[in-house]
Amino acid sequence: MRQRHGGSWRKEVEAPWRQKPLVHAHKSKNAMRLAHLNEACLKWGLRAGQGLADAKAIYPGLDIVPADEEADHRFLTAVADWCDRYTPLVALDAPDGVFLDVTGCLHLFGGEEALLSDLLMRLFHQGIAAHAAIAATPGTAWAAAHHGSAPLTCIKAGAEASFLRPFKLPALRLESDTLAGLSKVGLKTVGDIMDTPRASLTRRFGRQPLMRLDQALGALDEALSPRLPVPEFSAERRFAEPIGLINDIERVLYSLAHTLKPQLEAHGAGARALEFGLFRVDGLVTRLAVGTSCPLRDPDTIVKLFRERIKSVGDDFDAGYGFDLLRLNIVAWDHLETPQSDFDADQSGGAHDINILMDRIAARLGLQAAAAVPVRRFSPQESHVPEYAECLSSQHVPVKKAVEHDHYAHAPKALRPVRLFSTPEPVEVVAQVPEGPPMRLRWRRVLYTILKAEGPERITGEWWGHDVSDGDARCLPRDYYQVEDQEGRRLWLFREGLYGPRGISNPRWFIHGLFA
Amino acid sequence: MASQLSVAVNRKAVACNRDRTKTLRLLRYQMRALTGQVEGFEDDVTYLEKRRQNVLDGRLPLGHEDFDHDLQGGIPWRGLTEIYAPAARDMGSAYGFVCALFARHAILVHATLDDEATKGTLGPILLVSQQHALGEAGRPYGRGMEGLGLPSDRLHFVSVNKLTDALWVCEEAATTRGLGGIVLDLRAPKGGPNLHETRRLHMRAMNAGVPLFLLRQGVDALASVAPVRLDVSPAPSCEATLFAGSSFEQPCPGSIGPLGLAVSILKNKAGPAGNSFILHWNSHECIFFKAASASRKVGASPSIVRTAHAGSKSRHPDRFDSFALSGDGPHHASAPRRVMAQRG
After folding, report:
1. B231, B244, B235, B224: which is closest to B295 by C-alpha?
2. Which of A164, A283, A367, B220 has the fewest beta carbons under 10 Å from its own?
3. Which residue from A350, A482, A488 is facing B235, i.e. has the nearest CB?
C-alpha cells in the first residue's frame, strides 16, 4: 500500500482509496478469508475472518490484496527498530504490536502524554495508524491499545482494575477456546471474571484466565524480552533539523565517541564491538556495526572504522530526507589499560597499526567479502583429513600456539601442498596396478604423464561422528600420492575407497592440492 | 682467516645468547662457510656484512649466484614485484616461490640482525586473494606453507570478490607500519591493475619499505611500473638424499626431493632480463641452490626422507618435451626450458 500510494498515504483523509473498502486476504481453514481490513470496510459490515466470497457478495468492488505475513513481520520489525529512539527495551508483540518499556525514559520526552503524542504524530506522518497506551503493566497497556476507543490512553498506576472492568474478555489476551468457554457460561467482560470466585474459575478453565488477569492488574510480573541487548555505553544526539551529509555525520560520530571516551576511561574499558544507529526522519533505521581486534576508545579510530563501513554500504546508504537521531552504542567491551608512553618511538613494533588495518579491512569488506569474516588466520585443527586439519578462523580468535597445544602432535610428517582445493576435483587416472600409484591422469581435460610418485599416505576417514553404514564419503579411507609430471608439476592426488571384498567396487581418484 | 672468523662467531654467539636457535643457526652458517658447503656462500667473513647490507638495502639474495647477480643482489625487498604463473595449475609453484622468499628473508634477518632491528622487519604477512583465483587454483594452505619454512601464524588471509577491493586492501596495507609483506593473488585476464594502479601500489610500498608481490595467473604481461617481473613455472625436482650428512649418504632414485622452479626474469630494471634459471629450494636451510650440486652439498633433513614407490622410476628421457594443449590458459609453460635447452 505504501508503495502504491506513497509513504504518507493515510494523511489524505479525502483520498479516494480511503473511502473504498480494502482487504488483505489469506488462505485459512481451506478457504480464502479476510485477514485485515480498512476503516471503510466497517461501514459495509465486513469483518476479519469472513470468507472472501461472502465479502465480495456484500461489496463487489472490493479491493483485494494478498496477505504477506513475512512482509508484515518485516514491517513490524522496522517499526520496532524505529521505536528504539524512545527506549532501548523494545519487544515485539506479533502480529501487530510493539511493547516499549519506558521506565526511566519519560522525563526525556516531557511526560507520558507528551511521549505518546510524539510517537503517534511521527507514526502518522509515516503513514501508520496506531493506538498507543501507557500503563503500569503490559497487560493493561495492551488492552487499552487494542480494545480502547481512544488512540491515546494513559492509565494511572493503581487504576487498572477500574479501567479494565468494562472491557470485553479478548482484552485479556486469552486463547480462542478459553474465550468460547467463558462466553458460554455468560462471562463476557473482565469485570465478570473479577467478580467470579477464583477457585471454580481455575478448576473449569485452567490457570490462563486468572494468570492474564493478575498480569494485567500487576499482581503477577510479566517479563518482556527485548529484541536487542541493552548496551552498557551509549551516546546519542537529536537534531531539530535533519542532517544528511557524510561530513556532518562523521562530525557527530566523532563527538559521540568523544562523549563516550571519559566513561570508558573511568571503567578502564575499550570497545570491542560498536554499533552506530542512524534514524531517518521517515522511520528507516540503519544500523552499522564494526568489530575491533583490540579494545579501543580513540574517537579518531572509531570514525575511521565507520568511514570504511559507510563506504562499504555504498549506494544502499541513502540519507533520504536526512537523519534526526544518531546513536553510538558499545555492544561489547574489554579491559583496556592506558599504556605509559615515553619519548621513545612506539615499542609495539607497529602491532597497533596492524590491528587498526585489519579492523578497517573488516569494516570495509564486511558486506562484500567473499567470506563471512573478511580477515582470517590459518588455525590448525586436530584432524588428519586435510580439509579439516586447518580452518580459516576470525582474526579475533587467537591462534593456538604450537608449543602450548598438542595439535603439533597431529601435524603431518609428510609434506602438504601450498594450495589446497576446498572441494577435491575428480580426475581420471590410469595406474599400472589397481592399488599402485598413477601413471597418467586427466585433469581439467589435460593429460599429464606422471614420472615420479611418492606414497601412499593412507588417511582413514573419521568414522566417529559420522554414520559408517550411510556410505558417507568422510568415512572412506584415502590413499594420498605426491606425484610429479614430466614438466615438474607436483600434484597431490588421492584414491578414495579400497579395492577388494571389504571395499567399494570402484574407488575414485581426486586431485586435492598443488605443491610448490 | 679462520681465526678471525672464529672470533666473529663467538662475539655474535654471545650477543644472541638469549635465543639459542638463532645462535645455532648462525653457527651452522658459519660452519658451512668454513667448509664451503653452502652454495653461493662466500668463504669470507665479509659475506655476513655483505648480506646484512643486502637485507638492509632492500635486496634479498636467493643464494643462487647467477640469479642474484642478474638482479644486482637479489629480489627487491621493497616495492612491487610481479610474478606470473603461466596457468592456474602452475600457481602452486608461484605461490611456493613467494613463500620460500619470505622464509628465506626471515632466516637471513635472524642471522644478520639483532633483536631490536628484527622486530620491525618480521611483521605479519597479508595474503590477499581474489575469489576467482581461489576457485581455480585452490586456497592457500598453511600447513603446506609451513613445510616450506614459513610459519602460518605470521599470515593473515583476506579474500575479496572485486579487484577494486583487492587493490584498496593492498594500498591501505602498503602504508601500514609493521607489516612484513603483502601477497596479492589475482586472476583477472582482463581489467587487471593498470599502469596507474601499479604505480600507486609501488610508490606506497616503496615508501613504507614493504615488499608487495603481485601474483597473476594465466595472463600475458601488462604494463606496470614493477622493477622486476618474474615468470615462475614448475621444474623437475631433485632426488632426495638418504642419510644426508653421514657416511651412508646416497641419493634416492625416483624420489621427489627439493622442489624445482623455472624462474625467468621477464623484466629487470637493475640488470639484464631474459635469462632463465632452474632453482631448487632447500626448506631445511632455507636457501635456493643449483641442481647439479644438490645431491652432494645440500642435505635433506632425515625426517623428510621417504621411500619412493618401486614402480615410479623415471622411464621418460624426454621430460622437457612440450605438452598437450592446456585447458585453463595460454600455454607458455615450456618457454623458459626451451631457452635453457638452446643454451645447452
Report:
1. B244
2. B220
3. A488
pLDDT at A419: 94
Amino acid residing at B219? V
pLDDT digits (tens, 9 = 90+) for A474-514: 678 889 999 999 999 999 999 988 887 665 667 889 999 99
Which of B104, B131, B141, B283 is the mutation pick for testing A, counting most A CBs within 10 A?
B141
Orientation angle between helical segments B20-35 and B91-112, nearest 10 degrees: 100
**CA-to-CA distance for A203 and A209, rounded, in angstroms?**
11
Residue of A nearest to B156 (CA): A377
Any idea of the CA torsion for A188, A189, A195, A198, to the nearest 10 degrees?
Answer: 70
- What pLDDT score was predicted for residue B94? 94
Query: Of B157, B168, B311, which has the smallest distance from its Cβ to A436's Cβ?
Result: B311
Phi, psi of B176 (to 5 degrees): -90, 135
In this complex, the residue of B161, B236, B315 whose CB is nearest that of residue A488 is B236
CB A512 within 8 A of CB A386: yes
Pairing mode of beta strands A478-485, A490-496: antiparallel
Taking an 8 Å cut-off on Cβ atoms, the answer to whether B159 and A369 are in contact is: yes
The residue whose grid cell reads 482484552 is: A171
Chains A & B: contacts with CB separation below 8 Å? 241
Nearest by CB to A452, which of B90, B314, B327? B314
Burial class of residue B7 in the structure, from the number of CB atoms within 10 Å of its CB (0-12 exposed, 13-18 middle, 19+ buried):
exposed
Q: Per-residue pLDDT tens for B145-180? A: 988 988 888 899 998 888 888 999 999 998 887 888
Percent of chain A with pLDDT over 90: 25
Angstroms from B314 CA to nearest CA on chain A? 5
DSSP string, A287-321: EEEEEEEEEE--HHHHHHHHHHHHHHHGGG---TT
Contacting residues of A for B138, CB less than 8 Å apart: 417, 419-422, 513-514
- Which of B315 and A215 is assigned the larger pLDDT? A215
Res. B295: pLDDT tops 60: no
Range list of H helices, A102-245? 106-109, 112-125, 138-147, 160-164, 176-184, 190-195, 198-205, 208-217
Give B63's pLDDT tier (boundaries 50, 70, 90): confident
Contact A449 B309 (CB under 8 A): no
Name the residue among A124, A120, A146, A123 with its Cα closest to residue A135.
Answer: A146
Q: A59-115 pLDDT, tens per residue? A: 888 888 888 888 888 989 999 989 988 988 999 987 889 999 998 888 888 888 899
Q: Name all contacts of A6-14 with Cβ < 8 Å and 24+ positions apart.
A: A6/A127, A7/A126, A7/A127, A7/A282, A8/A125, A8/A126, A8/A127, A9/A127, A10/A124, A10/A127, A10/A128, A10/A129, A11/A124, A11/A125, A11/A127
**Which tens digits make up the pLDDT trace of A419-453?**
999 899 999 999 888 888 999 999 999 999 999 99
Asked if B92 and A454 come within 8 Å (Cβ–Cβ), the reply is no
Residues in B closer than 8 angstroms to A487, CB to CB, are: 233-236, 319, 323, 333-334
Asked whether the beta carbons of residue B158 and residue A376 sit closer than 8 angstroms, the reply is yes
Q: Per-residue pLDDT averaged across B182-208, rounded?
A: 87
B81-116 pLDDT, tens digit each? 999 998 889 999 999 999 999 999 888 887 766 555
| Min Cα separation A253/chain B (Å) | 23
CB atoms B178 and A432 under 8 Å: no
B301 pLDDT higher than 80: no
Q: Which of A359-368, B115-124, B212-221, B248-257 has the lowest mean pLDDT?
A: B115-124
A444, closest residue in chain B (CA to CA): B327
Name residue B179's beta-bridge partners: none
